[in-house]
Design brief:
This protein has three helices and eight strands. 13% of the residues lie in helices and 32% in strands. It has a domain at 12-117: Ubiquitin-like (UB roll) (Roll). It has helices spanning 12-16, 51-60, 143-147, and strands at residues 31-37, 43-49, 64-67, 72-75, 84-91, 97-104, 121-126, 129-134. Strands 2-1-6-5 form a four-stranded mixed β-sheet. Strands 3-4 form a two-stranded antiparallel ribbon. The chain has a two-stranded antiparallel sheet with strand order 7-8.
Length: 154
């Protein structure tokens, strides 16, 4: 499979039906990917994929993303051992968002902080200001040991 996908059909009914997978990439060549755990539906992370990352994911069954901060493809879990094996890929009605249902190897953690999910904080108003509160402080691995001086580089 190449890193190119066919153009979206001009007919909305055709786009929304079964048939060609025609992801709608944004102006930067990216599509949003929402990642959940296949076992319990826990939201693990949100990332971006370019055509190459999406192609690698489809071909290998291992989740690949595009890192905007590093401007390169990243195989999730390659450093930590927490590889994400894709069990199912869904696409929304206009094909501009992808949903990956994955199983996570290794420590069963997705976040570079060592937590299971990147969504470990809640947001609320306190004294008229938005603040975050950690609601899951369980670390499944030590980020310092795993990444050394490069935390968050997974």
């Amino acid at each position: 499979m190449s890193s190119t996908f066919p153009p979206a059909p001009s007919d909305k009914k055709e786009l929304e039906a079964s048939g060609a997978f025609t992801p709608k990439f944004d102006a930067h060549g990216l599509v949003t990917a929402v990642i959940t755990d296949i076992k319990d539906g826990e939201l693990l992370m949100v990332a971006h994929m370019n055509a190459q990352a999406l192609t690698l994911t489809l071909e290998t069954g291992i989740a690949h993303y595009y890192s905007r901060s590093r401007d390169k493809i990243w195989k999730k879990g390659e450093t930590s051992g927490n590889l994400q094996t894709v069990q199912e890929i869904r696409v929304d009605c206009d094909q501009d968002a992808i949903w990956l249902k994955v199983s996570v190897a290794g420590h069963d953690a997705t976040c570079h902080t060592g937590r299971r999910s990147c969504f470990y904080r809640t947001v609320s108003l306190q004294d008229g200001k938005a603040v975050t509160t950690i609601t899951d402080d369980t670390r499944h691995f030590d980020p310092e040991e795993t990444y050394g001086s490069q935390p968050g580089k997974e």
